[in-house]
Fold:
Amino acid sequence: MTSKFSSAVMGIAFVLAVAMGVRAMVFGQVRTEKLPAPLLDEPHGAANSETAVFAGGCFWGVQTTFQRIKGVTTTTAGYSGGSKETANYGAVSSETTGHAESVKMVFDPSRISYGTLLRVFFSVVHDPTQMNRQGPDVGTSYRSAIFFTSPEQEKIANAYIAQLDASKAFPKKIVTQVVPLKEFYDGEDYHQDYAEKNPNNPYIQVCDIPKVAALKAQFPELFQDYKKK
Structure:
């Protein structure tokens, strides 16, 4: 398992970034255009509030990206997939708990749809063709997963993955898990807004800031500056 706190890893990340290009390292390929919109999506304004939970590598980058989307009201970094007893960073880092580093977001369906969040998730947040790794982070806790909170979310997520695979949007098959959310456990306080609090951290510079830049470039109509609530 590769720890985000390792200075050695940060050094390797910089070498990779120079050798491969930051965008290639973040996404696993160079993507300059956003993915097509889902053909299946939820009705506009179907509810006053809805919850989505995604896992796509280190939760720092996932959170800092979704914080900047209009219609997303709150985000929380945490853990999904394992038990309450092992829902802590020390245990999850052992890669034996079944947890994935995840981000829970509450959003307003009258302003943004679940399908649009999925579109951002697959376009700029992570590489969904990577099994148990994103960039320099390796292990099952960094897997790509959608933890659906309703049958409708499950249907939309599976349909969008099938749509992207059928159109060969990626050079390899998508490996993202679509599984029911059993429980979400909030991460430690120091993980919340980590990228915002540590913008000069080498890991954040290499792995996370490019995601925010890609969001702004590909989805300018959705982008907003993040202000901590």
Observations:
- The longest strand covers residues 72-80.
